[in-house]
Specification:
Layout: H1 2-12, H2 14-34, H3 37-50, H4 54-65, H5 69-98
Amino acid sequence: MRKVYGIWFMKRVLPWLAAEFVVLSTIFAGAQSYLSFGHILNNAVVRVKYYSLLSFSDFLMSAVTNADLFTLTMLAGAFFVGTLVVRDTIRATRRMRAGNFLRMSRVLYSR
């Protein structure tokens, strides 16, 4: 019976999760050609290492306020799609752990 549920999961839930991962990957690929994540992370680490952890919040605020509209749009889109991926993954794993496979059809469609 587990094999049947596994096949059902692969056909019903996995395509939605895969689609969300593709969208998220596309957003990050577009951002990678526009932003240098290595330099951003390096600046953040230097800020925390040489100043303090609280100065990291100043770094984030200055980075967001000095960013242009395209960068903020990509950031918001990545955050939104990432939130959807995490939500759907948590719902699917909770239902699978509970053994409630019959209600798995509501994993992606419930509010």
